[in-house]
Amino acid sequence: MTATEISITPAAPVDTAPVVLSEAAALKVRELLDAEGRDDLRLRIAVQPGGCAGMQYQLFFDERSLDGDVAIDQPIDGVGTVPLVVDRASVPLVTGATISYTDTIEKQGFEIDNPNAGGGCACGNSFCG
After folding, report:
1. DSSP classification of residue 104
2. Does residue 127 carry a pLDDT above 70?
3. Which of 12, 30, 108, 124 is paired with 99 by a 20 to 30 Å CA distance?
4. 3-state secondary structure (DSSP) of residue 39
5. What are the chain's domains?
């Protein structure tokens, strides 16, 4: 998958998708969305103040459409698309980030590789810009 394959509906000018899901993350999000049984939900990716390093990520399903949101429909081979949304204030903080998903005996969950994060905290739950 390349950035040019991703469908973006910006409320503000954006050339490429600010966030990309790895294949494993996209499949997990699609699985979770399907389990919800609703077709109006998108995975919202947001950055909020908090955590010991100053900022923290929030990932949650949301049916709202806010002014300035960047909507992304990321394709998954043979499965369809995964609908994502990033709010206007979070776009510059997550542009270039990749969200992956790990499911092993040692670790399970989503991880965000963000080139904009200047550093993190020991717990790994927050970052600074």
Report:
1. S
2. no
3. 12
4. coil
5. 3-115 (2.60.300.12)
Under 8 Å between Cβ of 108 and 102: yes
Q: Alpha carbon of 115 to those of 30, 38, 41, 81, 122: distances in Å?
A: 25, 33, 27, 25, 18
User: Chain-centre distance of CA 48, in angstroms?
Assistant: 14
Burial 92-104 (b: 16+ CB within 10 A, else e): ebbbebebbbeee
Q: What percent of the chain has pLDDT over 70?
A: 75
Q: What is the rounded CA–CA span in Å between residue 20 and residue 8?
A: 11
Closest CA to 82 of 129, 12, 23, 9: 23
Q: What pLDDT, in 10s, does the model give residues 54-75?
A: 778 899 999 998 999 999 998 8
Average confidence (pLDDT) over 8-19? 56
Cα 80 from Cα 73, distance rounded (Å): 9
Mean pLDDT, the chain, as a whole number? 80
